[in-house]
Design brief:
Blueprint lengths: L2 E4 L20 H24 L4 E4 L16 H4 L1 H13 L3 E4 L12 H20 L7 E4 L8 H15 L2 H4 L2 E4 L7 H11 L3 E4 H6 L6 H9 L4 H4 L3 E4 L17 H10 L6 E4 L5 H13 L5
Parallel strand pairs: 1-2, 1-8, 2-3, 3-4, 4-5, 5-6, 6-7, 7-8
This protein binds a DNA duplex through helix 4.
DNA sequence: CGCGGTCAAGTGGCT
DNA sequence: AGCCACTTGACCGCG
């Protein structure tokens, strides 16, 4: 098991997602931002290794406007050595990496332009992992998208786009994650049947939106969609409800008892855990201690 | 230098 | 009808 956190390290005084407004786009600004982002990413990865956190989600903002038409610069070539070096560091420390394209990536949108933009974004994010030289256990996770009042049709539209429009380099990394209101684990299993994509399982979304499967059974169902030699072991997002807040809001700090209970419930199941908790590495560090105390982590 | 408005992009649930 | 949340705030102009 590896444990990590997404995108941002709050202990370090740098961000790996520096950007700028579209109105102030320039090649110089782009190059300067990417340089700073990759330098910060290096520091974050080093911090993670020092603290035993071997699962990390790269921010979508590493390369500003990477999939926007304004950006015609060949940043792939310019930064290839830097990406390669980062990838070598990741591999030499046996880290697991994911990326999570944001909510604007909707493969089953009825709007063709939205689909085209979504594919361009997936190509960008996949190319970051490719440039790093990471194998296909490094994943891109997206949600099922909208239902548009007719979920079966929307699911089929997703599968059609998957088969007819996605490059192989994206398909090799793409995973679907159950979301908290539209596409439950069962819906994702349908998508898995239609496409072969593995399912990234989110325990908190499952608590918000499911068909009643007990947590252990749900983890096992998702785990079965991962081909070990192609995909690696199950990736999971872990979180819990912020007490007193509206349903679906992520907690600020890890609730240690709930995390302990989750590990007890999933004993013997292999997975890597991404802690989607607001305070980032602070909770990831606590989670690592708990997992160690339960013999789930060295 | 701190604050508030705004920023490439989508969708659905809540108030 | 508009706001909010979502895996993640950061930028920019103004006082």
């Amino acid at each position: 098991m590896k444990i990590g956190y997404p995108c941002i390290n709050e202990s370090l005084d740098c961000s790996s997602s520096r950007t700028f407004r579209l109105a102030s786009y320039s090649e110089e600004r782009l190059i300067s931002s990417v340089e700073q982002n990759l330098a910060c990413l290096r520091r974050i990865l080093e911090y993670n290794v020092q603290h035993g956190m071997l699962f990390f989600r790269l921010t979508s903002g590493l390369v500003p406007f990477a999939s926007h038409q304004v950006n015609t610069y060949n940043w792939q070539e310019h930064f290839q050595p830097t990406f390669k070096s980062l990838g070598d560091y990741i591999k030499s420390h046996n880290m697991r990496i994911s990326m999570h394209p944001d909510q604007f990536v909707v493969l089953n949108s009825p709007n063709e332009q939205t689909v085209r933009n979504s594919i361009a974004e997936l190509v960008y994010q996949g190319s970051v992992l490719d440039l790093m030289g990471l194998d296909t256990t490094a994943k891109l996770q997206i949600h099922g998208g909208g239902a548009y009042g007719d979920k079966p049709t929307a699911l089929n539209r997703f599968a059609d786009v998957y088969h007819t429009q996605l490059p192989e380099a994206v398909k090799a990394r793409l995973c679907v994650e159950n979301d908290d209101r539209t596409y439950s684990l069962q819906d994702c299993l349908v998508l898995h049947e239609l496409t072969g994509m593995p399912i990234i399982f989110d325990n908190f979304h499952h608590e918000c939106n499911s068909n009643g499967e007990p947590m252990r059974e749900a983890v096992q169902l998702a785990s079965q969609t991962w081909q070990p030699d192609r995909d690696g072991i199950l990736m999971m997002d872990y979180s819990s409800q912020a007490p007193g807040e509206r349903k679906g809001k992520h907690v600020q700090n890890i609730q240690e008892q709930l995390f302990h209970d989750f590990l007890a419930e999933t004993e013997g199941l292999d997975m890597d855990l991404m802690l989607e908790i607001k305070d980032k590495e602070a909770s990831a560090l606590k989670a690592i201690e708990i997992a160690r105390s339960m013999g789930r982590l060295k």
